[in-house]
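Illustration: Peptide/nickel transport system substrate-binding protein.
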Amino acid sequence: MLFLSALTNCQKTDTNTRSYSVFRYNESAGISSLDPAFARAQNNIWVVHQLYNTLVEYDDQLQIKPSLAIQYSMSDDGLQYHFKLRREVYFHESHLFHPLSTRMVNAYDVVYSLRRLSDSRLAAPGSWTMNYVDKIEAVTEDSLTITLKKPFPPFLGILTMKYCSIVPAEVGNKPSGWLSKNPVGTGPFYLKLWQDNEIMILRKNPKYFELDEYGHHLPYLDAVRISFITEKQSAFLELLNERLDMISGLDASYKDEILNELGQLNPRYQKRFVLQKADYLNTEYLAFNYAKVTEQSNPWSDVRLRKAINLAINKEAIVLYLRNGAGIPARQGFVPPALNPQVVYRESFNPELARQLISSSGIPADDLRLILNTTAAYADMAELIQQDLAKVGIQLQIDVQPPSNLRQNMASGAVTFYRGSWIADYADGENYLSLFYSKNLPPAGPNYARFTDVNFDRWYDELARTTDADRRLYLISRMDSLLMEQAVVIPLMYDQVVRLVHRRAAELPINSINLLELRRLNISAP
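Result:
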């Protein structure tokens, strides 16, 4: 109780916690659920990652490695995946297991957890992860087989997603929504306290199964303390006052304070903090509603005009002035470079060529009008783009909408031109290209661009079934190039994960899928 009291104490010095190893961060968006089936947004994903494990996970190089499954294999036809579970992995203590306090994980828990995602009564946003699955069967207490409807090489990547975390089968005896507030997982931490909109405390799981290379039990931390300060400027001040160990992302309220124009940490903070950066599997982009712009009466049906927009936008300026250098100008395609190493298409900032393309189209200047639909968070980016396009004769109007309205309008096809971003669900180029597959037209999928192309679909179908690594890379490159040749999408930047971390937590790992990885973090006292 003394430990818990110390953690919930918000006094400046936090003197009572000095003998404990506690990592402190803020979640401005709040946390809505601790049920992994609802771990859709980063705010929920980060905490779910501390509480649960999946069968497999990514390493630092985005390669699949075992987690709860100590071994796994795939059949030659790509249809069956066999998993052998670790022994001696225990769930967090819970009255679920009465009269016992806990029990070991078994294959029936895995079967329940994955089948649960498809339960229409749950209405989980992660239900789509099981679309490829035909059946899930426990073979023994510690082994199971997953059979797919057809080969899908990225399937192991899907199983790394937090949606696919393993929960005890006894959850099925509880009311819907119970797991949201009463998490029972196998992760390195368990929930100790949750006061809505105030504080969440996670404690070290003493039965956690992972060891470090020296045979020491993980995690090293005693606890994690999460606050819910909604104002990001206020959270920044908490970091400066040493009440937080990290802030993630660059908010406009403080980015110019901590970074110089080259994206480097302001010298005044270098003794106390570390600036962490890593390439992030997130593409910021503009896209056309292809079904609308390819109508004969629409001037933007001329691909030269769409290509002119891509050439006219100074993407380097967007990264430099709006993100203080935290990002990479998107000059090679929609799929991030880490997932598309065989680059075929490249372009550069070339407003003169943009003017030539516009002139060759013969479209009257008065018809060079376009409305860009975006949200308030990206209004400054839209204004820079507006200025760039004006220089080549394109009149861009900006329509700022609430995020929920924009999503609805994109899904319904009401908008012609919009700003979007795509964060990888799993580390495979196929995940990005699925946004332009004709079978993913809304409401069936996320093809809000309403792009249809026979060749693209044929290549996508092959990509989704072939296991040949070289062939897959070729197809990813070819499809990405086709999108750029048709100019249905205009990638703006490949994002970066940016964190400002207190030096006592300087060894905090950073990765391109932006998971908060705390298992191996060893920090000094505040």
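Reading the tokens back as a structure: Residues 280-496 form a domain with the Dipeptide-binding Protein; domain 3 fold (CATH 3.10.105.10).
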